Amino acid sequence: MAQESPKNSAAEIPVTSNGEVDDSCEHGFNRDLKHSLPSGLGLSETQITSHGFDNTKEGVIEAGAFQGGQRTQTKSGPVILADEIKNPAMEKLELVRKWSLNTYKCTRQIISEKLGRGSRTVDLELEAQIDILRDNKKKYENILKLAQTLSTQLFQMVHTQRQLGDAFADLSLKSLELHEEFGYNADTQKLLAKNGETLLGAINFFIASVNTLVNKTIEDTLMTVKQYESARIEYDAYRTDLEELNLGPRDANTLPKIEQSQHLFQVHKEKYDKMRNDVSVKLKFLEENKVKVLHNQLVLFHNAIAAYFAGNQKQLEQTLKQFHIKLKTPGVDAPSWLEEQ
């Protein structure tokens, strides 16, 4: 070959008798290495460290990182790309920007719908079910309010009957000439108070069940309905935005915007379809649960009221046993948390 490789040159470096490298041959080796290296790398940019042959370490070539025709010395360690470093402040700023843009689009859609200028997506069957649910909720709330009023009034009447019975019983002991008359009235008022407490327990159980249905079950479904309506507004807002872009010119500047708008429209369409399906499922289960709960509670309310005003104490007590209602004994405090364990 016309030019020897650095390996052959290195193999021919003479050494002295004590194992040290002959300095007179070092310049020749560097000259040969310079010819063998690529043209973009100079000898002045490379450091060669040689050791004696008695050392187990080989020669180490240290080269700086090549940056625009110049080499700089780098330290050992992991390499971190600056482009991969994420700034938390920039991420928050980007989230705020997206939220502001989304809010602007939704607000514009709501205003256009109220002014009658914008179009909205309507599921007639689902919207009808939602309207019925909201109307029923108002009616159930009215029934709940009236039942609570009845419970309060019945509690006051029972309390008065109990006090009246105690007064009659006291007079029965102190008025010997009217002992029997006062005694009859005392027994009657105490019996009415006892039956009133039984009816009060049934009414309070009815109130608790209807309250759970109205303020928890129905309210949970209406929260899903609100999320569905928000998803519908977002869907219509991005649909309108895409339609406006499609009506405009198509060039190198508008095509990327149309593609991005198409992507955002598809994302919100999937969200809207998912929320619409969730609302349909919840309305179906709510209807089944509502029928079951109200059927039992209305039967309880009717039987308890009918037995109370008919004076049928046995039937009244049987009604409470049928629905597993336990009455609180008057004058007895609720058990402590230690007793309930």
UniProtKB/TrEMBL annotation:
<keyword id="KW-0175">Coiled coil</keyword>
<keyword id="KW-0472">Membrane</keyword>
<dbReference type="GO" id="GO:0008104">
    <property type="term" value="P:intracellular protein localization"/>
</dbReference>
<dbReference type="InterPro" id="IPR010504">
    <property type="entry name" value="AH_dom"/>
</dbReference>
<protein>
    <submittedName>
        <fullName>ARF interacting protein 1</fullName>
    </submittedName>
</protein>
<keyword id="KW-0333">Golgi apparatus</keyword>
<dbReference type="InterPro" id="IPR027267">
    <property type="entry name" value="AH/BAR_dom_sf"/>
</dbReference>
<dbReference type="GO" id="GO:0032588">
    <property type="term" value="C:trans-Golgi network membrane"/>
</dbReference>
<keyword id="KW-0597">Phosphoprotein</keyword>
<dbReference type="GO" id="GO:0019904">
    <property type="term" value="F:protein domain specific binding"/>
</dbReference>
<dbReference type="GO" id="GO:0070273">
    <property type="term" value="F:phosphatidylinositol-4-phosphate binding"/>
</dbReference>
<feature type="coiled-coil region">
    <location>
        <begin position="123"/>
        <end position="150"/>
    </location>
</feature>
<feature type="region of interest" description="Disordered">
    <location>
        <begin position="1"/>
        <end position="29"/>
    </location>
</feature>
<dbReference type="InterPro" id="IPR030798">
    <property type="entry name" value="Arfaptin_fam"/>
</dbReference>
<dbReference type="Pfam" id="PF06456">
    <property type="entry name" value="Arfaptin"/>
</dbReference>
<dbReference type="GO" id="GO:0005829">
    <property type="term" value="C:cytosol"/>
</dbReference>
<feature type="domain" description="AH">
    <location>
        <begin position="121"/>
        <end position="321"/>
    </location>
</feature>
